[in-house]
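User:
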Amino acid sequence: MTLRESVNYNKAMNIVITAGGTSERIDDVRTITNSSTGSLGFAIGSAFARAEEVDRIYYLHGRRAVVPESDIIEPVEIGGVMDLHENLSRILTEEKIDAVIHAMAVSDYMVHNVTTMDKLMGTEDPNHVQDLSGNKISSDIEDLVIHMKRSPKVIGIIKELSPASTLVGFKLLSSVPHEELIRVGYRLLQKNRCDFVLANDLREIDRNRHRGYLIHGDGSYDTMNTNEEIADMIVRRVLEERKVK
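Assistant: Predicted structure:
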């Protein structure tokens, strides 16, 4: 039995998928980003594109992420966290969205301003003031200081703007006990009113394996071992959830 045959659901669905990583701008040529490649988001997007119940996919992706090829996918390139916030808010406000798969690795911090240690300490030579203006900060500066501030939690706006959407959140930790991984993932689910959360540990991810645990609202979870298995399970559970709703 195929995925399409396993769920009898005839309503055309609009899906939002976020994938890859955000990039916070330092100047016009430099950014701070993370190591996300968007490969899991790609697998999820490809799996939803194969589901005949889905009519349109808004694919919000980081600049390094590859976009699945499909006529129903509308790609939206994302820069920093506020860019993601703006585009996601716009789509959730203007469109009826049935499900949001928030797989993007969103930066916890944004660039607030750029300065130097001498400026911070008040020891800058007034005859040799470092110019930090312009589109590209000079590479001659020896002690550049980047001041960062906490980013808003984008996942928190999803149910506020579109309470009827099925929401899948993601939580990545590194080298923690399994019980803690599930506990933290379930806490994310409760805090942000997610329907499911995909919890994974960096030590269980490599080139040939990606073990993930899709946590349900009752605390139970599915276990998968590859990106493709994770993607198919997310599609299956979302379609089942939408059938009930």
